[in-house]
């Protein structure tokens, strides 16, 4: 009897590797963590089989599928699966509904002496399981929100805590006009799947509190499901009170030092030009809120810092445009948001004080 499982919790907790045998177009719409797309049919082959199914029925479609994936084509695809399993022995297999594609793939590997478990119900069943974890009723811990002015190092602190969930990390976006990375954000479905993984693991660890950054619902193009976002917003607020100069240092490290390294590693000698364009475009997006005079001031500060860096290698002048944006754009906006908030502020302190408080409060 074919080996199947619907123990989706184990797949999440053990970070089990998965082979997704759906066509690439299906995989791109949404998949799971630790899944690799090694399709049994290409997009074109799947399209041909689909047309045949509509016109001539199931038997004709199955026959065409076996014709399209045969001989060397079949051998290469089976070999790709076996190579992945050799590197990841606990790998499991899925297609969309746990039907023909994963069953046939499983049989072909069995013919080569390789047993593999396939997911009962396939992608659809596992996806439904993960969606359940996004419901507030699934949670058994109380949210605590970590707030503070831009550049306070909230994400740095979150990643030091075992009971935190880094929403920006899951969305691959820093939640600001300058928040995008070179690497694209996940699709909305993949963001939800990754968030569900994090929530399931958090619940399994038995934490009483879930520490999250005080975010809006949208993080770049990704968004937190509405009911879950409302659940998060009910958490009490803890504020990091970090001096402006320290926030400038933190922002310089992240948006200049680290970001430029990423651009240089990706684009080589034109990396700094690409980085400059990325920062310039970020400033343009907030031009209206900055106002004409301040916008021109910030753009000149950026240009002067960039030209100075190109000539000397010194990045220190970037602190000027960073300080202007933090002080004159982000700080007033955050102050306005805090004054409107009705959420109780239960603690306020600097980086170390907040860290110590959270460790003691959450014991």
- Number of DSSP strand runs: 11
Return the structural class.
Answer: alpha/beta
Strand content: 5-15%
Widest sheet: strand ordering: 1-5-4-2-3
Distance N to C terminus: 48 Å
Look at the structure and give the CATH class of the largest domain: Alpha Beta
- Main sheet properties: 5 strands, parallel
Given as residue ranges, the uncertain stretches (5+ residues, pLDDT < 50) are none
* Inertia-based shape: globular
Q: How many DSSP helices?
A: 17
- SSE run: EHEHEHHHEHEHEHHHEEEHEHHHHHEH
Round the Cα radius of gyration to an integer and report it. 25 Å
Topology:
Elements: E1 4-5, H1 8-13, E2 18-20, H2 24-29, E3 35-37, H3 43-56, H4 58-68, H5 71-87, E4 92-94, H6 100-111, E5 117-119, H7 122-133, E6 142-148, H8 154-158, H9 167-171, H10 188-204, E7 209-213, E8 218-219, E9 222-223, H11 226-233, E10 236-240, H12 244-267, H13 271-285, H14 287-290, H15 292-312, H16 318-340, E11 345-349, H17 351-361
Parallel strand pairs: 1-5, 2-3, 2-4, 4-5, 6-7, 6-10, 10-11
Antiparallel strand pairs: 8-9
Helix pairs in contact: 3-4, 7-10, 12-13, 12-16, 13-15, 15-16
